[in-house]
Design a protein that fits this description.
- Helix 10 links the parallel strand 4 and strand 5.
- The protein is 43% helix and 12% strand.
- With 465 residues, the chain is α/β, with parallel strands linked by helices.
Length: 465
């Protein structure tokens, strides 16, 4: 056996061992300080044996790894990195392709073309749309909003890509009060400012209020970008696209949808009513490493107007081959020239699951979220503050107490949950109060795992109250 074969087999053995132990793992991960201490050593003067490096890496890293690939990880909104996607990603690393253009990596460019077509079909979005394979929803929002910035200014007679924003007509950005923080970051990166926006009032679950939007639109003129949301990060709520998008289009707005996880509601008849009318937008951002279960990192920037997308993103140089008729350069749709070939893992997951498998995965997660909510709601002192329409839960403990005492008890319960290690879930603020926030996004979270999660939350609550 060659040295390379031995090395790769050892890495596969260690990876499989980590996955095998994951569902039964009940030990909280080491924190940053403890993890740093394990790795803190001077730079070696001489090199180290390859096998020993990989073994030490696994040994020192694993205590500081959360069980994000396990069935009871409910923190943030993180998918389970399905083994098929991981195996495809192993190959991606081994192949070492730079997915910048079709000449440097023909197979990488080709598989993105097919995977993009499959994604548009699955998500029920316009077939003429272009898709950029990016790191995640943050860069997907950035990419889509870059296309929006260029196009709304082009309509006003200004070439932002050539001339920048100095002297450009003013762009108005409309955004809901409960938009995700990454959208504000994208606006900052684009020179549009994270505070220089018109924020529109939202309802109790975070949806834009159409009446408030109408009043705001009456005050707006000139280039306009509107940012809507499919899946509020706490409640899972969706803006009313069917009612709102026509109002925005009547004002000439470019409508962008941040659908990091919520866009996947389009794939199931049980949830697609939540996103009714979403296909009328101009651009959409979503993640693969959430509900499609690809390994990190993987996101998709989807733009109806391919020319606007390419104007904003294309990188050209004399040494780079030009894409001819029927050819596709991946770098024309993303901010990077050199980047990972993310299309391989996406293609593998879509091929493995198929349309029916993706739908079943979404339905299972949503059903598990509802099961947890139903069980917790029957327990005195525990309240579910949102309608669990998708996969997100907003949980509050001992609502009979004064607000500050309820906050303290909620925080104590969250710390107890983390210390017990049966599940991972984090806290957040919602409407000024402390909450436990759960996101059910893992393909392994069956009804049995959901029941176990609910009972562990109840046990933690009882032990601190």
């Amino acid at each position: 056996m060659s040295a390379i074969e031995s090395l790769f087999q050892e890495a596969a053995r260690l990876a499989a061992g980590f996955r095998r132990a994951g569902p039964a793992r009940h030990v909280p991960a080491h924190d940053y300080a403890a993890s740093l201490a394990r790795f803190d050593e001077p730079l070696p003067a001489a090199g180290c044996d390859m096998l020993n490096v990989i073994r030490q890496l696994a040994s020192d890293a694993e205590p500081g790894l959360h069980a994000t690939t396990g069935p009871r990880f409910f923190g943030w909104v993180i998918g389970g990195s399905h083994p098929v996607g991981v195996a495809a990603d192993f190959l991606t690393s081994a192949w070492g392709q730079n997915a910048g253009n079709h000449a440097a990596a023909p197979a990488a460019a080709a598989v993105e073309t097919i995977a993009a077509r499959w994604l548009l079909d699955l998500l029920k979005l316009p077939a003429e749309s272009s898709v950029g394979f990016v790191t995640g929803a943050t860069v997907a929002n950035f990419t889509c909003l870059a296309a929006a910035r260029g196009e709304v200014l082009r309509r006003a007679g200004w070439d932002a890509d050539a001339s920048g924003l100095f002297g450009a007509p003013e762009i108005t950005v409309l955004i809901g009060d409960d938009a995700h923080t990454t959208v504000f970051s994208a606006l900052q990166f684009l020179g549009l400012g994270h505070d220089r926006v018109l924020r529109v009032r939202t309802d109790p679950v975070g949806r834009i209020d159409p009446v408030a939007l109408t009043g705001t639109l009456d005050t707006v003129s000139g280039p306009l970008i509107a940012i809507l949301q499919a899946g509020q990060i706490n409640t899972g709520a969706f803006d009313d696209f069917a009612a709102i998008i026509p109002l925005l289009k009547a004002k000439g707005a470019w409508v962008h949808v941040d659908g990091a996880f919520g866009l996947w509601a389009q794939t199931s008849v049980k949830t697609s009513h939540l996103s009714r009318g979403i296909e009328a937008a101009d651009s959409w951002a979503t993640d693969g490493h959430k509900w499609l279960q690809t390994p990190y990192d993987c996101g998709y920037a989807i733009v109806r107007d391919e020319l606007a997308h390419r104007r904003a993103m294309t990188i050209a140089a004399s040494y780079l081959p030009l894409a001819g008729e029927g050819e596709r350069d991946p770098s024309h749709y993303v901010p990077e020239l050199s980047r990972r070939a993310r299309g391989f893992a996406t293609w593998a997951m879509l091929k493995h699951l198929g349309r029916e498998g993706v739908t079943a995965l979404i339905d299972q997660c949503c059903a598990s979220a509802q099961l947890i909510a139903d069980r917790l709601a029957r327990e005195p002192g525990i309240a579910i503050l949102n309608e669990v329409a998708l996969n997100q839960l907003v949980i509050r403990f001992d609502t009979d107490l004064p607000s500050e005492e309820g906050d303290a008890l909620t925080r104590k319960t969250i710390e107890k949950i983390k210390a017990d290690g049966m599940i991972f879930a984090g806290g957040a603020k919602w409407r000024g109060r402390d909450i436990l926030r759960l996101s059910v996004t893992n393909f392994q979270t069956t009804s049995d795992q959901a029941q176990l999660a609910a009972e562990s939350i109840i046990a933690a609550f009882k032990s601190v109250s």
